[in-house]
Specification:
Number of strands: 7
Strand content: 25-35%
Largest sheet: 7 strands, mixed
Shape: globular
Strand order of the largest sheet: 1-2-3-4-5-7-6
Structural class: alpha+beta
Length: 168
């Protein structure tokens, strides 16, 4: 019997520690030099193992990329927060531990979340990315996302531009 070494599955309570590490490493890798250092480190500190245990206890829609038994990435999703018709679904976060980036695994997470949103009858999908995060913007463009809106996000004393990508 053959089993996949890499697969996407619902998160489990025992994933909290691994998810805290994925979050910290992915955020530092993605946002170092974009989000001011102090703001970035505060955000990382707030999302430690305790935060993840609470999030998993609330049973938020969260899928993990399981690499040989360990959570190595995650995606959160749900009803679109902006209410921008015709986009009913949203991917809130999609992050991989830096070791697993660039291998096509992010696409695997994205597609599974997209399927879950479809199963929930949420048609159309949006995801936001900071415009200075070139790799995230390139990733969503490579998946066929179309820029549909712009906004801003505050981090400490600065405001950073963000862009929404959408799929019908």
């Amino acid at each position: 019997m053959e089993t996949d070494v890499v697969h996407v599955r619902p998160a489990r309570p025992k994933d909290a520690s691994a998810l805290a590490e994925v979050y910290a490493e992915a955020w530092r890798g993605a946002y170092r030099g974009i989000i001011p250092h102090l703001s970035l480190e505060r955000m990382v500190a707030r999302r430690g193992e305790r935060w993840w245990k609470a999030a998993l206890a609330e049973r938020r829609p969260l899928l993990v990329l399981d690499f040989d038994g360990a959570a190595s990435g995650y995606v959160t999703y749900g009803r679109c927060r902006s209410g921008r018709a015709p986009f009913q679904g949203e991917i809130f976060e999609l992050y991989l531990h830096p070791v697993y980036q660039g291998l096509g695994l992010g696409e695997k997470l994205f597609e599974r979340a997209r399927q879950r949103l479809f199963d929930l009858r949420l048609r159309g999908l949006m995801v936001w990315a900071l415009t200075d995060n070139d790799s995230a913007c390139a990733f969503y463009l490579s998946l066929g996302g179309k820029p549909v809106a712009e906004g801003a996000e505050r981090f400490g004393d600065i405001s950073l531009r963000k862009i929404a990508f959408a799929w019908s």
